[in-house]
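The protein record quoted in full:
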Amino acid sequence: MAEIVRRHGHRMSMNRRDEVGKEKWAKHYSSNHQILLVGEGDFSFSLSLAMSFGSASNIVATSLDSYDILIKKYNRAKSNVGILRYFGAQLLHGVDSINMKLHTDLRIRKFDRIVYNFPHAGFLGKESDHLVIMMHKNLVRGFFMNAIDMLLPNGEVHVTHKTAHPFDSWNIEELATQSGLTLIECMDFKIEDYPGYNNKRGDGKDSDLPFPLGKCSTFKFILSSQAMEYLTTSHHRRNPQQPQEIPLQRGNANARMDSSIMMKSKECFWIFREYFNHVRLTSGKVDDFLTYSVKDMLRIGFERYNAENHGKPLDGYVDLLKELHSLSKQRVTFLQKWLMEMDRYRL
């Protein structure tokens, strides 16, 4: 390990020599960016950026695997991690992309670039199978919903993804739009732009082997104006995994449902979370101008339920719909009472 660090340290020193303070770029990424790398395999992508920058002090890199599992999966993981730590990277293990904003070391952090290369829910069957596609989409959607709360002003979320069939069925851009992001650029991905990067399967007995890349692109997203407005005016962050109040009117921050209307079912919120986010983001807007209607949000909930309960009767889904319907009626009742009180106040 000492020899490896010495060799890489010499290369980094050469990169830094006579260039103190000079901004350096590795394709889309700058040494001046605060960068969060999500779902790293053997951390070779992180190391590639660090080698280009001559430092890793601006990098936070995470893996879903614990450190112990990581070094068993990947032959070079231990040395890559050691080098990154030596040169200033913050490395976090056991970080799940669908709730990463709640991680102790990330909950107050903001980033210029949040990067997820080749997100994948695991080898659960044929990639063209509907259930498998839905599992992948749920992963990406959960990542986006976390990333939007972790961006600095003018920050970007990057996802590199295979774009040939059946991977194009993931509809990355649609998932981003549903999560409050807007595509600004889509560029061909070339692995040679990142010297030393080795893509990994990351699952099963062949975890340390590469997978064929084929046609790939890096999708770049920024916050949509609607999401930016909501995040700017929101007075507190909400836990996406916990029951929440449903705000009725963005213009009145004090208007909230009473405790009897608080949603009690975590499962209902989980299945229909896009619907509740939709309610918060579009309250007070005319439906004709909405990109995605309530029906679209409920369709996503149905797809998620099917993916997570494949082959089971739909009785459970019907029960969740009934609960959602009951909550919606209570919301309407609350809104009517609130408007009547406002009218009396004005009189």
The longest strand covers residues 151-162.
